[in-house]
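[Q] Does anyone have a clean structure-token version of this?
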Amino acid sequence: MRETLKSSLEEIDKMNAIVKSLLDLARIDSRIKLPQDKIRLDEIIEERFNQTMPLARYKGVDMKVRKSEKVVVIGDILRIGQLIFNLIDNAIKYTVKGGRIEIALEQEDGWAIITVLDTGIGIAKEDIPYIFDRFYRVDKARTSGEGGVGLGLSICKEIVDAHEGRIEVKSEAGKGSIFMVYLPAATRIGELLNEIGFA
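[A] Here you go.
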């Protein structure tokens, strides 16, 4: 009886996660104009790092942030925070005890570049083109015991697209993954506005 109840509660948690993720996607889809918050990415990364560190420690995963410069982007501060959280959470989820996660931030050619590297189980080459699709779940190795619903990375993609950025992944099964997010830095936005006469 106790096991049945536990199983039922786990399924309820999974369904709640699905509903929350779908609501997030619906809000992003329906948003006509993003808030124009001035966002310090280095500060948001530090906040999300501190938020997820207890889980990394619990799993025995070494996680660190490489010292990063001050980088500012313009957009929705809540969604950018969610993007960074999802990427770190995804890395922790698929990195086993003794593994390593490294988060970095840099600015190059007008782009703010967020990198999340992990030494986890990786992604097979044939699955990479589909990992940002809604409800796409790679295989049992990446989903068993983790409660994934196949929406976390698709939400990341939607958020990045809404901010006129791009997201890339390099991965190999058994060798970890590197996710790279490119967002227009505030300096780049100013340059573009100058070019079209709006600044």
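[Q] Thanks! Anything notable?
[A] Residues 4-15, 140-145 have pLDDT under 50 and may be disordered.
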